[in-house]
Amino acid sequence: MKKIFGILIVSFVLFVSCTNDLLEPFTPGSLTEDVALTKSSDLVNLVNSSMNILTNRADYVFSSIFTDEAAPGFNNGGQGITEDYVFLMNVDNESARIIWQSQYFALARINRVVTFADKVVAKTPADQQIINRSKAEALVLRALAHLKIMSYFSPNPKDDAALAGVLADRVILTTEKPLRVSNGVFYTAIHKDLNDAIAIYDANTAPAYAGISKTYYPSKVLAQALKARAYALKGDYPNAETFANTVINTSGITLANTQAQYNAVFHTHSESANTEVIFRLRRTVQQNVQTTNLNNGWVSVANRRNGSPFYEVSRALYNKLAAVPNDFRLNTIVHLTGTSPSLIDPNYATATDVRNSDIIVLQKHGGQSAVTAANGFNPDFMVSRLSEMYFIRAEARAAASDLVGVGTNLKAILDARFPTPQVLPVFANPQAAWKGILDERRKELAFEGFRFIDLKRIGTLAGATLDRDAAEYASGSWSFPAANPTNLPLSSFKFALPIPQVEVNGNALIQQNTGY
């Protein structure tokens, strides 16, 4: 932690805006924070800079490769196939390091917004409202970062006594070496931040962000959605359902219900206002670079067969998506038509060269609009969508053994993802209901960073395991014996990532997770 915050003091002058002038630098005349943060626009820029740090694809990519969403692509040159894909996890794992550090890098800036929002003197009453809104946005982002840390690094997020991460609810000095605290402490801090943010939003009169632009900024709706997510992670389903209901019934947001609208959410970000998205981390054309673009976590150049995909949609996931005809999500996730589309081999299971005969190209993030080039379109990072709230309601119904209620909430999503109303899902028992929820979350939230955490928190309730097709790890052209999903039971300690070695090097007393 000392290492992280020391780096951030040096880089503190690099403020970045999240508007169309995203790369315009803000350079204070002094490194002294009291001088650097003196007006509302400084806080706005620092919030935007924090969100820019959070646009890190590591957890989106890791979650897909370590589990069963992605499989090695025919152009794979070694990326991940000796590490994450074969479940190799240790203190030097790069994915774990980046997930940990990116959250704490952002928190270092977020905490300065929270602290200095109470010190900056407003020029006018309207200016005070902008200051207050910046503080609310920072509080929501702080809760989001802490929630992600706990989700990945806690051995058991349902246990208040289990360890989470280092609580960063203030500006931490470089001389400090804080230890990890319990999940209970994390949950208390997360809900306090979200409650405080909601109270500020309720009283705030700053001009509202309009149209799709409002999905680029934390909001009261996002705070409510994160409370639902946090309660679901804890297994507190009465409270989770309360906040999921609030979002569904009062946000004014509706599910995308056509192929065009669903594609627009992910491929062009041109969906109608108040459709599907609660919050996204925005990317601009000026930021287009292969090392940070979201889609380039799976392809080198473009989302097509000739775009050098080194990871593809897994066969097991494709089979789930294609099982029922006309599922919008299949065409959104898989590049099936147009320039250099996927190759779908109906006989893949017995193919002698499945690596080259069955190429299932991922296009969810950016579709065919994504271009890895200077000033080219690169996709935003989806953080929260309305469909997640319906899933949380379904989980709450499963926890209450209301199997009809589970089916009703899943049907609400399915009806929006097919051109015609779907049959109400029916479940014989609670475990089957949990499995139905997990399977639908897998299709709906694929490649959005949920799968690892979903398996961790509800996989056992569903009686589930990782679902990889043997053609992708035990065939003549793809032979990775260690990638057999039996090598990663859901009881594995690896579902709690290790505290990175770089953190331990700077803070020798920090508690490590069991198994590392």
UniProtKB/TrEMBL annotation:
InterPro entries: SusD_RagB_dom, TPR-like_helical_dom_sf
Top-level taxon: Bacteria
Alphabetized SUPFAM superfamilies for the sequence: TPR-like (SSF48452)
Alphabetic keyword roster: Cell outer membrane, Membrane, Signal
Subcellular location, record wording: Cell outer membrane
Domain RagB/SusD: 341-516
One Pfam family here: SusD_RagB
Gene Ontology CC: one annotated term: cell outer membrane
tRNA processing keyword on record: no
Family: Belongs to the SusD family.
Protein name: RagB/SusD domain-containing protein
Species of origin: Flavobacterium fryxellicola
